[in-house]
Amino acid sequence: MNIHTGSEPWNHAAALYIRMTVFVLERTIKMQDEFDDNDETDRVYTVIYTDDGQPVATGRFQTIDKTTMRPGRIATIKDYRGQHLGAKVISTLEEYGRTHGYVKSVIHSEMTAKGFYERQGYQVSSEPYEEDGVPAITLTKQLL
């Protein structure tokens, strides 16, 4: 497996392909909800590729403020789940954030993924709420 973090058009397309497959086709989230104003062409994504170049896992990097980052849209293609690729995406995005001066990470998580993020060192920092029609919660982690 190979991992790439960047905003190149080919990497952006790979990230959107994974999200379309996982969130829109598999989970039936509306395209208008999944693809939002934060998907600018210069957005940084981490994508994990198989050795033959197939994109299989992704995550999006966003900035909240000068010291706070927000990983999001973490997704893994069904046939590749259980290989800890989501955790690798998160740690890669956090490392990217650290190297760019971010000291805190905030994630808006679906309630069903709360345990996954807690295993990555995140702590619940909000009451449950609804986001895009899905029960969600905010979790935070200090990066330094």
From TrEMBL:
What's a single GO MF annotation on this record? acyltransferase activity, transferring groups other than amino-acyl groups
What UniProt keywords apply to this chain's record, in alphabetical order?
Transferase
Q: Which residues form the N-acetyltransferase domain?
A: 1-144
| InterPro entries, A to Z | Acyl_CoA_acyltransferase, GNAT_dom
User: Cross-referenced Pfam families, in alphabetical order?
Assistant: Acetyltransf_10
- The name of this protein is GNAT family acetyltransferase
